[in-house]
Write a structure and sequence with these properties.
The complex is a heterodimer of chains A (588) and B (193).
Chain A (H helix, E strand, L loop, with lengths): L5 H15 L16 H5 L18 E2 L13 E7 L11 E3 L2 E6 L3 E6 L5 E5 L11 H7 L7 E3 L2 E5 L4 E6 L5 E6 L14 E3 L2 E5 L13 E6 L5 E6 L7 H5 L10 E2 L7 E3 L4 E5 L3 E2 L3 H4 L11 E6 L5 E6 L15 E7 L2 E8 L7 E5 L5 E5 L7 E4 L5 E3 L12 E4 L12 E3 L4 E7 L2 E6 L13 E3 L12 E7 L10 E5 L8 E3 L3 E5 L4 E6 L5 E6 L9 E5 L2 E8 L3 H4 L17 E6 L6
Chain B lengths: L4 H10 L18 H14 L1 H4 L14 H7 L2 H11 L10 H14 L13 H5 L3 H4 L59
Helix pairs in contact in B: 2-6, 5-6
The chains are: A mainly beta (588), B mainly alpha (193).
Chain lengths: 588, 193
């Protein structure tokens, strides 16, 4: 397995440190108020200081100036082009009047949140890898989520596997560490959480050949950047069940298990929750794991935030045969039922779109519900045992099966949002299937280990609308009559935002940002923009005015299924931008 | 990173016994130079903005590389994808001849050599074209060519099962690259070929 030593980490850090000096810092934000640990745990209602607004990953803002009655009056306040092209999956943050915007290649900009004027910009000199490492170049150079704000810093995870701490007032590098070795394939594609003086992050690139046997959630001290613990999703010698679940396949031949969505944190139990992606090679036939469940792939992990010790796990898709990752946002929700507070973890964790509710203190399965059409899971028992569809598991090279959802989801990185107003979880989804065929590939440096051919994404038979927003009633048991579904032709391409104004806000491949009524699903406002809506829309309040930030740009969630809605042509330009809306100012 | 040495040595010892189905022994060129030349023109205007001038991305997946060719498996695997899903702003909207030419150019970029045979959109013909085989410069094996040269020894690790007999793998000498391989690499897996 991978052994990454301090010596090699220092060598890599030194090799890149000489380049860091070229980072720019044009301006300074004076009198910046630090983000305290208490703020991380309980953010001001007027701000948006983490990927999903709060560290429980709910994606909810209590702001209500923009609401069911006023949303139709939204006007453009300002717009801004992003600093780089490429897939746009950004999650802007706002604190103390500064909008922090990360774009591809780890460029971070601090903008005046009132005007959109640039305060400072940070451009890292990233380590170069050979052009022939095509999969790594493609996969790593897309920043799915976020940066983190802590004290007077911006904490940044990079495509060349560094953690960089920037001065939030001027964008200058305060310190950095080479957390993993990019030369074997590791990269950060999701941002960290920072809480109680600890940076908790998860590395990506674990389906790239050189990373065999190791994929990690890892903790570093915020001040010293010394590693405190790491948890390997592919190899846990302390758990015989995990070891047995890979059959005869040793750690040296295991890939995947990437936790490529930012985790959540529960201060009540000091637990951090992360989702884990698929195993690779994708098909058990080629993987060699036979009928093994390949733990901890496609699982939820509950880890002690101080030690990294595994408290519990729950596997949402054992024996994955089709690259149907289950790493997506784990959302922490407290429900009052019968005079008792229940502490739930809710999620549509995987590409197959199945919703799960778990007891987050024990990992106990409570209930589940299908959303989009899927045929990867045949049933889920009352005790939470998931039965993966053996009929569609690949039994021979050259055999083709049509699996739903597709490798592009179903559900993907676009995060759902919970609203305490309705106790519903709102999820952006896509109806899609694809043909898969197991292949045998000789692995090469910087390239993937999936060993699978994917056909083009197609709609499931009988379905003509790719896009689906679904509202799921959250509770300790399933509410058959709760929630709603709203369908549309173009696919959903952004995360969702819920607000105290009773709105669900998100957007699609057709360039529309929309506001749905949380209660009914009715579209209350829509605005067509320059490109597919992407990233994670967010909101904040300054000087008594609520702002709505909507990222747009180049979208794989649009392009992968655009053949399902050919009447809505995608732009060939990337157009990566942010559009910021607010209500008309009564003073003006 | 370490791979058990016995796996490496085992792989080197038995790699010479690879047997390849006839469908994977495609030696001849499968497109004309004119098709590839035309295909490059279309690629540069329809594909390069995302897939890159060198077909290596990074804003869309790479289209060259051994792993890419092996994963698409046959020319049909690649053609059927691009003809229905590409380019994303107008999927399937190009003339069939254009897609065929672009396919020819992608094959050429992967090392295939043009000749007298014209590439067509005929599904059966496309299915008969193994991408790894036609884009390899190595001698081509047949079902009778069971004595392919063993790969050169190398200090770098390979897969747990490296070197065992496998179907569907073209017989290019497999230099031990230091890259870990699938657990089942080198073993014979069931195939419907």
């Amino acid at each position: 397995m991978i052994k990454f030593t301090l010596k090699s980490a220092l060598a890599l850090a030194l090799s890149t440190s000489a380049l860091i000096g070229v980072a720019n810092a044009q301006g300074v934000r004076e009198n910046y108020a630090p983000v305290t640990n208490d703020m991380v745990l309980d953010p001001p209602a007027s701000e948006w200081i983490s990927w999903r607004g709060t560290i429980d990953n709910q994606g909810f803002s209590s702001l209500d100036q923009i609401n069911r009655e006023t949303v139709d009056s939204l006007q453009l306040a300002w717009a801004w082009p992003m600093a780089d092209v490429g897939l746009q999956e950004t999650a802007p943050l706002m604190h103390d009047g500064v909008l922090f915007l990360q774009t591809n290649n780890n460029i971070v900009q601090a903008l005046d949140a009132r005007s959109g004027d640039l305060i400072w910009e940070y451009r890292p000199a990233l380590a170069q890898i050979p052009a022939e490492w095509g999969y790594q170049n493609y996969q790593s150079r897309r920043q799915k989520n976020s940066i983190a704000l802590y004290e007077d810093t911006v904490v940044l995870t990079t495509v060349d596997a560094r953690i960089i701490v920037l001065d939030a007032t001027n964008g200058k590098v305060l310190r950095e560490v080479q957390a993993f070795d990019y030369n074997v394939g590791y990269s950060y594609t999701v941002g960290p959480i920072v809480v109680n003086g600890t940076i908790i992050s998860a590395i990506s690139g674990c389906s790239i050949s050189g990373t065999a046997g190791g994929c990690y959630v890892v903790a570093h001290d915020f001040e010293t950047l010394e590693e405190q613990w790491r948890f390997n999703t592919l190899d846990d010698p302390s758990n015989p069940e995990q070891q047995a679940s890979w059959g005869d396949v040793p750690p040296e031949n295991r890939w995947g298990g990437t936790p490529w969505a930012t985790g959540s944190y529960d201060p009540r139990t000091n637990t951090t929750f992360w989702g884990v992606g698929m195993p690779a090679p994708y098909a058990a036939l080629v993987r060699g794991s036979e009928d093994g469940d390949t733990l901890y792939t496609n699982s939820t992990l509950a880890l002690d935030a101080d030690t990294g010790e595994l408290k519990w796990y729950y596997q949402h898709l054992p024996r994955d045969d089709w690259d149907l990752d289950s790493p997506f946002e784990r959302v922490l929700v407290d429900i009052e039922e019968n005079g008792e507070t229940r502490h739930l973890l809710v999620s549509v964790p995987g590409k197959n779109g199945i919703f799960f509710a778990l007891d987050r203190d024990t990992g106990e399965y409570l209930w589940s519900q299908e959303t989009v059409y899927q045929n990867s899971v045949s049933r889920i028992d009352e005790d939470g045992t998931v039965h993966t569809n053996e009929d569609l598991m690949l039994k021979a090279l050259g055999e083709e099966v049509l699996i739903c959802t597709s490798v592009s989801g179903g559900k993907l990185w676009q995060a759902g949002a919970y609203s305490p107003l309705t106790q519903r979880f709102y999820v952006p989804l896509t109806e899609a299937c694809n043909v898969v065929e197991a292949t045998q590939t000789e692995f090469t440096a910087g390239n993937a280990t999936g060993s699978m051919r994917f056909g083009p994404r197609v709609l499931p038979e009988g379905i003509t609308e790719a896009g689906l927003v679904e509202a799921i009633q959250v509770g300790t048991t399933r509410d058959e009559d709760g929630g709603w579904k709203v369908r549309q032709r173009p696919s959903m391409t952004s995360s969702l935002l819920t607000t105290g104004g009773g709105l669900v806000i998100g957007g699609d491949a057709g360039r529309y940002v929309k506001a749905w009524d949380q209660e009914t699903g009715e579209v209350l406002w829509e605005q067509r923009l320059n490109a597919p809506v992407g990233g994670s829309p967010m909101t904040y309040e300054l000087d008594g005015e609520q702002y709505l930030v909507v990222p747009t740009g180049f979208s794989a969630a649009a392009s992968s299924i655009s053949s399902a809605f050919p009447e809505i042509p995608l732009p060939s330009g990337t157009g990566n931008s942010v559009f910021v809306f607010k209500l008309p100012n009564s003073d003006s | 990173m370490s791979i058990p040495k016995q796996k490496l040595f085992l792989g080197l010892a038995v790699a010479g016994a690879l047997v390849f189905p006839a469908t994977h022994a495609f030696a001849a060129s499968v497109f004309t130079d004119e098709q590839a030349t035309e295909g490059q023109k279309f690629y540069d205007t329809q594909c390069a903005m995302c897939h890159g001038a060198a077909l290596l991305g990074p804003d869309a997946p790479a289209l060259v590389g051994r792993e890419v060719m092996q994963n698409f498996d046959t020319a049909h695997g690649l053609f059927s994808f691009i003809v229905s899903a590409m380019p994303p702003q107008a999927p399937g909207a190009l003339d069939e001849e254009v897609y065929v030419d672009i396919l020819a150019y992608i094959l050429e970029a992967n090392g295939a050599v043009g000749g007298d045979v014209e590439l067509t959109a005929n599904e059966d013909e496309l299915r008969a074209i193994n991408l790894a085989a036609v884009t390899s410069e190595a001698p081509v094996a047949t079902v009778d060519d069971e004595a392919a040269a063993a790969p050169e020894a190398s200090a770098v690790p390979q897969a747990y099962t490296w070197g065992k007999t496998l179907p569907s793998i073209e017989p290019e000498e497999q230099e031990a690259s230091g890259v870990p391989q699938a657990y089942t690499w080198g073993t014979t897996l069931p195939s419907i070929d």
